[in-house]
Amino acid sequence: MGRLVLAGTGHAHLPAIAAIGKIIGDGHSVVAINSGDMHYYSGMGPGMLGGVYRPEETRFPVRRMIERRGATFVKGRVASIDAPGRCVVLESGERISYDVLSCNLGSEVSWSVPAASGKDVFPVKPIDNLYTARERIVSMACEGRLRVGVCGGGPAAVEVAGNAHAAGKKGKSGGCRVQVFSAGSVLGGMPGRVGRMAEARLVKEGIEMFSGHPVSSVESGAVQLESGAVYPHDIVFLATGVRPPAIFSASGLETGPDGGLLVNRFLQTPAFPEIFGGGDCISFAPRPLARVGVHAVRQGPVLLNNLLARLNGGSPYPFEPQAGYLVILNLGGGYGIFSRGAIRFGGRSAFWIKDFIDKRFMLKYRE
Questions:
Q1: CA 280 to each of CA 105, 191, 245, 336: distance values in angstroms, whole numbers, following the listed order
Q2: What is the pTM of this model?
Q3: What structural domains and CATH numbers belong to the chain?
Q4: pLDDT band for position 13 (cuts 50, 70, 90)
């Protein structure tokens, strides 16, 4: 029978992890590769930064989940994929062979200016960076008023800004000064009213918004804009959008314009039909998809079905993306913004809805 290798243990692989017992029962073996023993749920990451959730509430113990079901867990990072040889190569040099491979390797922060440096510069990916940042904010805010800079204008940037401000309130100094620097308008990819609602909320909380101010460089202690202006900061977050890892193009696999693994409507690589993918690391050939968690979550059951079909012989299902999807932003302090279609509102009720959805998702797969 076959060997299934799961490269990454993100949202799109959770149904496959839950079904390991069935896969092994069908006579196959399963190997899962991940850089850590835990997988943090991105939807609750800003809440972890703001102190609404403890770290253990926001993560899946994927190593334990995998090993308890009888599969092999390998702690390591994927360096490349030898598709003709059907082998995954880790950074350690270890080679892991497969009959069927599924990739859910996530994304990394897209950063086009000179490399940021310093211990207090935090990219928003991986998500566990946000807990480290929270500890620093609370600690530094106890010593005196804190200055926090956020680079970016998308959903991650506004959520981080609001929750960093909330975290700063935990300090005895009475809070922190938060500034947001975006090259374009805030939440420019979302309906205009959502951006205006988010900006109004952040400004009301005392957060300064610098829209249309591209950042030229970031170092520990300062953010410099293309205009030449320099703003001193104690902590800086990089939330300038995400991109797929460079693994696929470096491995000679076909990729989309953004470097994601190119997959068809069955989440399958056309040139190597034994390779599948889901989540932020793919480029969906039928049409571009926003890199939002809802797509990864909805891809999960389709991916599981198609992996089983490849292993056992059967019919794959196509992935049909939603035409529109729910977005709820957590802006810190128990305040959220709800947006779906023409329905948009802000307040505590929006946050409560998000909290309910996120906790239900965690309970569905978490042991």
A1: 7, 22, 9, 24
A2: 0.93
A3: 3-107+244-312 (3.50.50.60), 110-240 (3.50.50.60)
A4: very high
